Sequence to fold (267 residues):
Amino acid sequence: MKDAIKALFKVFVPVKLQPKLRSIFERVYWFGFRYTCPFCNSRLRAFRPSGFEYSVLIERKVVGGGYRSTACCPVCCSLDRERLLYLYLLHKTDIFAKSQQVLHIAPEARLADILRNQSVVDYLTADLYSKDVMIEMDITNIQFPDNSFDAIICSHVLEHIIDDRKAMSELYRTLKAGGWAILQVPLSLSLAETYEDFSITTTAGRKEAFGQTDHVRIYAQDYKDRLEKAGFKINVFKWISEAENFGGRKNSFGLNEEESVFLARKT
Fold:
């Protein structure tokens, strides 16, 4: 039934009106009281599932890389990891209250829309490949001087970078003393040491070994150690320890209960 309505929608509704009407349709179709999306404020009966079901992700218990039943908002398409990141910024940082220079690498669209409209945020987006950013940037060779940014947001990027230690060093170098960075990656709960094999270069080989065609490693419990070796002081935040700000015991924002936030500080 829903597919038939969508087909008619594409035929009879003018293209310019389709995004707005599609949003209204999804809000009505998915309406309920079980969940709320913090980005679009939709009240939802369910989130949509998302994520890969590759065997390596299941065997390695990779958080943030595998299949999740409540991952995607059906209205704005925000993922669970984006919702956690936004809620952490909102409740655990001063990014919305204090004037600061913020670098957002490979920006999430919904979070970028919010940050670019904050008067206190001197906001810069960067990516090596995407054209929908302010500047092109290779994070293993950042084109800014030391101590340039008060805050850096870099979520699910480092697992794509072959020389991730150089990237971590560059992020540390360009962060101001006293500044902070959020550095999220998919993380294995079963591995003690990060798994990487740079002889694996094909998309098929990387999908089988790392769970995604453009990933070059699976981070493990030593991820915190890697960041500390770059100079950062790390705080690992488990949102369920402060559930009242993150959806409560009912998990009304549809977050991954096993996902933590890695806050890196330059002291």
Q: What stands out?
A: Helices lie at 2-12, 18-29, 55-59, 80-92, 109-115, 164-174, 203-210, 223-229.
